[in-house]
Design brief:
7 helices
Length: about 350
């Protein structure tokens, strides 16, 4: 029995030696690659692709790109100058990545389905974020084109998911300079403007429109087809089931109007005259002192007929935002406590 056991152990020992040799070579390369990941861009215009990365020969990779260990780059992918793919990040499908973008470890961008994912310049896709994949809409027909367009200078943090459109005639759009914090979800066909902040665990359902400089606190849920107006603020834990007009603040489940987003307006540099005008218009619409309630259109018309208010563009914009929310294809605005009698 002893001679029979020697051979297997001898083979196992050889396998161990071979494995250790390969591991040593890999670790040596990785330790050298750490320097490359941080310094190769400054020293060379050529791209650096780690030998363990799987890069399709048809992929188009520009100069000064760094592709780390165990990354995947699909056949229709186009990567712009000075992009960095950290270890274990992946790009699939018809996906274009603009210049100076960064994919952190575990990030997945694009999917091998019809349509396209287009990402602009200087964007960061966080750890294990999933961007540009098939939507979760039961109406989506397999084989249909679907699209996602992302602008420039966006920071998309860890575990966020952003889906493509549900049909070929529409697209999911995220503009520029947005901060989308960890574990947010942006569903199919949403339209996000610029300079938006979505705090952690903000969940936005399909076809939602978010205006510039809107800000959500954490754990906010937004119903499909709602509009969040520019410069609006959504309090933490709110469930938004109707539109939030421009410049306003809401909170609660279901969210109620709680006045103007005064702190946000101050930070954005609105003048004292503009803020006073908006406050007066808000009071006329939602907090009447004469007891004559009337209809929403009557109140909006009263504001428009007040000369000193009608002269302010921000007031006209706020009034139009409210009026638009009552169109046939919209959901109305969040309730306001004064009218509900509470």
């Amino acid at each position: 029995m002893v001679p029979l056991l020697k051979k297997p152990f001898s083979s196992f020992s050889s396998l161990q030696k071979l494995t250790l040799q390969r591991l040593t070579r890999t670790l040596s390369y990785v330790s050298g690659e750490r320097r490359s990941f941080e310094e190769v861009s400054a020293e060379s215009k050529s791209s650096f692709i780690h030998p363990t990365a799987v890069v399709h020969p048809n992929a188009v990779i520009d100069q000064d790109v760094t592709v780390g260990p165990f990354c995947t780059v699909g056949s229709m992918v186009r990567i712009g100058k000075a992009c960095k793919l950290y270890p274990g990040s992946h790009i699939f499908g018809d996906t274009e990545l603009g210049e100076r973008c960064t994919l952190m470890t575990g990030a997945i961008v694009g999917e091998d389905i019809p349509g396209r994912t287009t990402i602009g310049c200087n964007n960061t896709i966080g750890y294990h974020a999933v961007v540009g994949v098939k939507c979760q809409d039961m109406k989506y027909k397999p084989g249909s084109d679907c699209f996602l367009d992302i602008g420039d200078n966006n920071e998309i943090r860890e575990y966020t998911s952003i889906h493509r459109s549900s049909k070929s005639s529409d697209r999911t759009v995220i503009s520029d300079n947005n901060l989308i914090m960890g574990s947010c979800h942006i569903a199919h066909d949403c339209k996000l403007g610029s300079n938006i902040i979505l705090a952690n665990n903000t969940l936005i359902a399909g076809h939602v429109v978010v205006g510039d400089y809107a800000h959500t606190a954490g754990a906010v849920v937004v119903h499909q087809f709602c509009h969040l107006g520019s410069h609006s603020f959504i309090g933490g834990g709110s469930v938004v089931s109707q539109d939030v007009p421009k410049y306003m603040m809401v909170t609660g489940d279901r969210a109620d109007l709680r006045g103007l987003n005064l702190e946000g307006l101050r930070r954005r540099g609105f003048s004292s005259e503009e803020v006073k005008g908006m406050r007066r218009a808000y009071q006329k619409i939602f907090m009447p002192v004469d007891g004559k309630l009337g209809g929403i259109e009557d109140r909006l018309a009263e504001v428009e007929q007040t000369k000193e208010l009608a002269m302010l563009d921000v007031v006209c914009s706020m009034v139009q935002s409210i009026r638009d929310s009552f169109k046939q294809d919209r959901r109305g605005i969040c309730k306001f406590r004064h009218w509900s009698g509470s």
